[in-house]
Amino acid sequence: MHAITIREYGDPEVLEWTDAPDPRPGYGEVVLRVAATAVNRADVLQRQGLYPPPPGASEILGLECSGTIVELGEGVDDRRVGDEVCALLTGGGYAERVAVPAAQLLPVPAGVGLVAAAALPEAACTVWLTVAMEADLRAGEVLLVHGGAGGIGSNAIQVGKALGATVAVTAGSAERLEQCRRLGADILVNYREQDFVAEIQARTGGANVILDNMGAAYLERNIDALATGGRLMIIGFQGGLTGRLDIGRLMAKRATVASTALRPQSVADKGRIVAAVRENLWPLVENGTVRPIIGHAVPLREAGEAHRLMEKGGTFGKILLTA
Ligand SMILES: NC(=O)c1ccc[n+]([C@@H]2O[C@H](COP(=O)([O-])OP(=O)(O)OC[C@H]3O[C@@H](n4cnc5c(N)ncnc54)[C@H](OP(=O)(O)O)[C@@H]3O)[C@@H](O)[C@H]2O)c1
């Protein structure tokens, strides 16, 4: 097959369309012919040599895809060659073919095309795991989504609204905030011009749940933006890895600081997350409440161009890579 491989760690031009070994299905796995995959921040870090794949994972980039099953491994008896699916991957999506545990497959939701379905698995699983399963966001609560216009954020706005929350977002421009508003966001904060702590406290009395992509840079301000009993859920470190935490301020609010990470989880745990997404979130996708938001679609062979777009910023939602 062909795949995007990394010549050496570095800038987007290190991504090359080359020959690569065909994947073989292990026990409980299927092989997909990839229709589309999508770019995630982790791909950029992996390309730079800052985020090695977990042991046993493909060296090829790509944490999600959609496609058609072309081969079944031993022990897979509930799938058929020819089934169209999308999948949460531990790697390997930037390729013509990928092997994936059957437990990590999701059906292509009714009303979403095969190609567009590639934009769903990583955001859907991250957001559902973090906001619904771990933070237990309840109707009537306030959810603050940092980076509301990004791939994860645009999904989180929709999920937060579907769960009955008031959704506040941060974004870097008025135009991006308007896009968030059209998706359902209730409270809009321009992080370049406004103090999100002051805005959230003044307008809501504090966020019950914060979905945070910034890590260290926002740690103390996030605690300040929480309501009593609030849950700060850290999923990224775009603002650095090492921060300062005032335990007194944390305890005064009886607040929780937690983190989630999808990729290093076992196949069994990913399977449980995927099953929960299928049961709870997929019906919302099928009835149109939650949509894949796709800002750009780029041919897979031009993955370097897609990485440049992600690093430049400004894409609303996901960047798709089409086969
Ligand atoms: N833990 C996990 O399992 C997991 C899984 C997937 C993703 N993630 C993480 O989730 C984050 C988002 O990923 P993505 O794929 O959605 O990336 P993305 O589409 O590139 O979105 C990045 C977002 O960061 C926002 N941002 C930049 N500077 C900011 C600031 N100072 N304050 C608030 N927001 C800021 C951007 O907002 P503007 O464009 O408006 O400036 C943009 O919306 C990344 O950190 C990624 O590593 C974690």
TrEMBL record:
Keywords linked to the UniProt accession: NADP, Oxidoreductase
Residue ranges annotated for the Enoyl reductase (ER) domain, each copy included: 10-321
Domain of life: Bacteria
Coiled-coil ranges from the UniProt annotation: none
InterPro entries: ADH-like_C (IPR013149), ADH-like_N (IPR013154), ER (IPR020843), GroES-like_sf (IPR011032), NAD(P)-bd_dom_sf (IPR036291), Quin_OxRdtase/zeta-crystal_CS (IPR002364), Quinone_OxRdtase_PIG3 (IPR014189)
Gene3D superfamilies: Medium-chain alcohol dehydrogenases, catalytic domain, NAD(P)-binding Rossmann-like Domain
Record's protein name: NAD(P)H-quinone oxidoreductase
Organism phylogeny: Bacteria, Bacillati, Actinomycetota, Actinomycetes, Streptosporangiales
